[in-house]
Amino acid sequence: MARRSAWFWIMALLHLRHLSLCNSATPPLPVLPIPSASQLQWQRREVIMFFHFGVNTFTDTEWGTGDESPWLFDPDGLNADQWMDAAEAAGASLVILTAKHHDGFCLWPSQYTDHSVAKSPWKDGKGDVVGEFVDAARSRGIDVGLYLSPWDRHEKTYGRETEYNEFYLAQLHELLTKYGSMSEIWFDGAKGADAAKMNYYFRDWFETVKQLQSSINIFSDAGPDVRWVGDETGGAGDPCWSTVNRTKLRIGDASLISYLKTGDPHGTDWVPAECDVSIRPGWFWHKNETAKSVSQLLEIYYNSVGRNCVLLLNVPPNPTGLVSGDDTQRLKDFRAAIARIFSNDLATGSAATASSERGGPDGGFAAANVLDSDDQTFWAADGSDQEDEHWIELALPEANTSFNVVRIQEVIALGQRIMEHEVYADEELVAKGTTVGYKRLHRLTTSVTAARVKIRITKSRGTPLLSAMGLHYDPSVDSPGEFN
Ligand code: FUL
Are residues 247 and 113 in the same domain? Predict the structure, then answer.
């Protein structure tokens, strides 16, 4: 055989690579609506943290009246860096602070009111909790969000529509220009029955927020980027669609609660749900309250993250200005329980097959992609086959694999598609559900042993796309006291 030059072989390899690239199928078109880049980033966080702190911390109340003296606010040991230990313990990559709660007391020295840290004895009125919070989070690589209550029980202009809307907007402007980039801004729809009647100019506020920080996510009952899930227990509806018709939503309208909980399979807007709940009974610190148990927190995790939502878990700092050591320890134990369950994927090493694979086995969308821990790769059923039912099956590496949690993840970047699905262990139906979304966790009531696990997708909007599938063992299913 004639000797070939190195150049020949390089060209031959490039040619082969070109041929194999030509064999890749294109990704399918999205099924609209789809998330924005900021919404996708938010969704991947899974658990984020809330800090409720303010004059209520010193008066042992949940809703202050607005008449409290700023003189009450004196957290003489405040250490925002220590708060971030709690965030890290929970694995939270975003922390949100109540810059102003309903009582109107501002945790930063707002130039538009005297009712703030500037009039408190803390640091002789020179302190800035928002500033310390932001610096502490950033120094740990944690992103920041702020809560600014529209309902303000202190501000005298509240009730005078134009004046108060301007006042609120000015405060928003301060917060969004003084403290760098924010990932989320929280508009709370709560307002007491005694609140003066007035309209908030949400449209003006939201447009200004986006003008100042274009990649921020705006949270409210009605989005536009993240919606309230409809209650404060930390659980989503089942199903919980990230899609809604935004025109149906109104901030503070209690008749919409069930719509918020479930979302809308026919919704034209992507507005995913955030599940807010406190680690303790109250949002603010109270000396007689203690943190929820690990098993309660786990239940919340399954009912929020496991239902396609983000969990916003509140931890209240105490009057010293510190998060209780017991709360941080509880968060560590919670995280350890999650790691114990989910770090071991019993599906690893399975052989994956499917009803069809877009572009065939070498098209780039093979069933095996659900096992590669890479959420950029995925299994796509072949859109050209006319079956309305699709399936994917894993032949497990061990014939007698025992599991009790099934994890399924859709490629939400291309739309939330699955409307109905069933999970089979060998031939037995062990779970069924409706939508999947970013993450769907089925915790079974008893452990099952199987050699094969199959997901049948019996109804979907367009062909289904799965980025991941996993099988896990939660010891508390067999021994309920395990995580108490
Ligand atoms: C509610 C408020 O009234 C509570 O005090 C708390 O801030 C919670 C997160 O939102 O609407």
Answer: yes
